[in-house]
Amino acid sequence: MGAALLWGALAASSLLVGALLGVARTRPGRLVGLVLAFGAGALIASVSFELAEEGLQTGGPVPVAIGIALGALAFAGGNAGIRALGARRHRGETHKDGETHKDEGGTGPAFGAFLDGIPEQAVLGIGLASGGPVSVALLVAVWISNLPESIGSASDMRRDGTARRSILLLWAGVTTVCALATVGGYALADVSGDTGAAVINGFAAGALLVMLVDEMIPEARSKAGAAAGLATAVGFALAAGLSKLT
């Protein structure tokens, strides 16, 4: 159990590291876009080679499909709720350029990190409980893919005027919950079985896919321009290579 907490904290630590980097200084929009694009590529590889593939091997297509549907619906519904809340809070407020504030800038990726981080790290805990060695590839892929999410989100939240303390508290909370999810996965390994593990993998994959299309990729493209595609390919190649190391 102690080992699960240690490895879970290590995997989740990049969320807080990214938030610290995001609020440390104002970063050029293009740089944030490139970081987001790189992270999007790493996450696509994680979905393909760690979550979906592992779920199919352990539980088959039906549990994975159910998990994907649940994860996609959870992120889409939760993100819609966040946007509606933001619209109510900022109704009638405008930026200096006269445009109405429409969302809670940066909180979408934070919510996505929360939704995909919990099952993703639960998968890490389940793997530890099986008695096998720690998947270095999965650990590194999770760490790398989390970093751009939190950097981009924290940078956007800071740009929109959110206090540094509030941003760091938000990401510290997400980091803590994700780390504890590894312990939860370790504890539930005996009762979840292969089917439960496959659903968990699918849930993480579904939440990530919706978050990528709705949040990270459009934001990366708008900030980094045509270079976003190249950065995404680099992120994908690196994470895909890591996934095949073990």
Detailed description of the structure:
The chain is mostly helical and 246 residues long. Helix 3 packs across helix 6. The radius of gyration is 18 Å and the shape is globular. The two termini are 23 Å apart.
Helices and strands in order:
Layout: H1 2-24, H2 29-59, H3 61-89, H4 107-129, H5 136-159, H6 164-224, H7 227-243
Helix pairs in contact: 1-4, 1-5, 1-6, 2-3, 2-5, 2-6, 2-7, 3-4, 3-6, 4-5, 4-6, 5-6, 5-7
- Rounded radius of gyration (Å): 18 Å
Large-scale geometry: globular
* Helix percentage: over 70%
Major sheet: none
Taking pLDDT < 50 over at least 5 consecutive residues as the criterion, the unreliable ranges are 94-104
State the separation between the terminal residues, measured CA to CA.
Answer: 23 Å
Proportion of beta-strand residues = under 5%
Structural class: mainly alpha
Number of strands: 0
Number of helical elements = 7
Task: Give helix and strand order, one letter per element, not per position.
Answer: HHHHHHH
Averaged pLDDT = 81
> What would you call the quaternary organization?
single chain
What's the quick description here?
85% of the residues lie in helices and 0% in strands.
Quick tags:
globular, 246 residues, 7 helices, single chain
